[in-house]
């Protein structure tokens, strides 16, 4: 367990980030293995059916990750303040709200699953398989929410390694279960969906067993489940905006994908291949950002305001430098990297993907600033401004999809991410500057003033 309120900030931040980074990479491997197994064992149409549900699956996972991240920030702040009873109450409150959230999402998803797929103009030859895959996912949302809640709570207490071990195990289990359900049991697309959910459920159970065997800080009792209105309100105020923020980003991606489809299969293939590489390349920046939420929350609770500012400055330097180097490498080696996905016999797709890299990889440094600033604000209890920043991302991606794609074709689609990053930062920066000034002014104040700040 790592106490982020002590030691050199950047050293603590880097050591906390490394397991997160490895975990995020394995999350990408998790997704990639699904793609390979379904495509190779069931067929292209089955793969298309899973792909057609991708944005909706991202929407579900985004809400689960965002909301439980928000709950964990409250627990981290109480841990930093030494309020161990408050940590347990926070965990109990989060469990109750998460159960309610799972039920609501499942009911809505199962009720409107078919209508959603039709609204997305899912091709008729794959809509049945898409419905099967997605309805199983909606029915098992509780497993996704449970894993994210338990893993985020463990990280909030300064332990980023244990959730990594469980994620790696889940990745291996998922591959084994998919092969079992699809190849041996012949369950088809349903087998792929069941395997994913069962792997998540096993990971959630492992997290829970770890908590009740080795993690006293989160071992709640019946007394902790006596919820108060203030606790519920505080958790909803942090969790729902962060979940909503993830959902509106997913909506922007759906709109962009719809317009990208009009450019033809080569453009879609180029964007998909480049996006896979892009996701891996931006993992370090995202991991540093996630770390900053916990770092800021713990140090806010401990009233180490100067340490927060120092940690942000140092993390920005490391993350920006890493992003510049990574972006340059992607641009230089982009063509052979794309060829690992599509082979060397698709020069048009390879060349088109390189356009994507020129617009995106050259601006990874902008994304690294966005992640650090946004997650720091969230760790400090700010929820409204990051949500507004998410709305700006939606607007920018929609603008790119509806306007720039028509004007510039694939180049217009490639501008979507940088525009979203820049627009989001425009919203965040002024709030960040004000927040840092406010923190400086709080250095000689009382804990009651801190409560006013985080409200």
Automatic annotation (TrEMBL):
- Transmembrane intervals: 9-26, 46-74, 95-119, 131-151, 163-185, 191-212, 242-260, 280-302, 314-335, 355-373, 394-413
Among PANTHER family, the record links this protein to: MULTIDRUG RESISTANCE PROTEIN YPNP-RELATED
Originating organism: Lapidilactobacillus mulanensis
InterPro entries in alphabetical order: MATE_fam (IPR002528), MdtK-like (IPR048279), Membrane_Transporter-Flippase (IPR052031)
What topology in the membrane does the UniProt record assign? Multi-pass membrane protein
Q: Which domain of life is it from?
A: Bacteria
Under what name is this protein listed? MATE family efflux transporter
Q: Does the keyword Transmembrane helix apply?
A: yes
Keywords, A to Z?
Cell membrane, Membrane, Transmembrane, Transmembrane helix, Transport
Where can this protein be found? Cell membrane
């Amino acid at each position: 367990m790592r106490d982020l309120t002590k030691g050199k900030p950047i050293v603590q931040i880097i050591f906390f980030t490394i397991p997160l980074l490895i975990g995020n990479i394995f999350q990408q491997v998790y997704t990639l293995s699904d793609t390979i197994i379904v495509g190779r064992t069931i067929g292209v149409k089955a793969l298309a059916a899973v792909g057609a549900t991708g944005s909706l699956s991202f929407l579900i996972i985004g809400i689960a990750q965002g909301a439980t991240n928000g709950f964990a920030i409250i627990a981290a702040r109480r841990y930093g303040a030494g309020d161990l009873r408050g940590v347990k109450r926070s965990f109990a409150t989060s469990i109750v709200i998460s159960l309610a959230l799972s039920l609501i999402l499942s009911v809505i998803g199962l009720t409107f699953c078919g209508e959603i797929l039709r609204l997305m103009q899912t091709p008729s030859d794959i809509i049945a398989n898409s419905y099967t895959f997605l309805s199983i996912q909606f029915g098992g949302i509780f497993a996704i929410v449970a894993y994210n809640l338990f893993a985020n709570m463990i990280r909030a207490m300064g332990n980023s390694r244990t959730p990594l071990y469980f994620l790696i195990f889940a990745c291996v289990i998922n591959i084994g279960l998919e092969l079992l359900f699809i190849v041996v049991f012949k369950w088809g697309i349903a087998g792929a969906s069941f395997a994913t959910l069962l792997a998540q459920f096993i990971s959630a159970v492992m997290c829970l067993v770890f908590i009740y065997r080795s993690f006293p800080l989160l071992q709640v009792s019946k007394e902790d489940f006596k919820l108060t209105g203030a606790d519920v309100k505080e958790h909803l105020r942090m969790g729902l905006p962060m979940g909503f923020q993830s959902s509106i980003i997913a909506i922007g991606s759906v709109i962009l994908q719809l317009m990208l489809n009009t450019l033809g299969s080569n453009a879609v293939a180029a964007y998909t291949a480049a996006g896979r590489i892009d996701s891996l390349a931006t993992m370090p920046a995202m991991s540093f950002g996630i770390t900053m939420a916990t770092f800021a929350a713990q140090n806010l609770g401990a009233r180490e305001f100067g340490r927060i500012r120092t940690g942000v400055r140092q993390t920005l330097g490391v993350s920006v430098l890493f992003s510049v180097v990574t972006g340059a490498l992607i641009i230089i080696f982009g063509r052979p990297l794309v060829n690992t996905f599509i082979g060397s016999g698709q020069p048009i797709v390879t060349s088109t993907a390189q356009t994507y890299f020129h617009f995106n990889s050259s601006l990874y440094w902008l994304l690294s600033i966005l992640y650090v600033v946004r997650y720091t604000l969230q760790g400090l209890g700010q929820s409204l401004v990051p949500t507004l920043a998410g709305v700006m991302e939606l607007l920018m991606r929609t603008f790119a999809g509806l306007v720039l794609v028509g004007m510039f074709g694939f180049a217009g689609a490639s501008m979507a991410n940088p525009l979203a990053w820049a627009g989001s930062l425009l919203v965040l920066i002024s709030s960040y500057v004000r927040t840092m000034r406010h923190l400086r002014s709080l250095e000689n104040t009382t804990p009651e003033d801190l409560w006013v700040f985080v409200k």
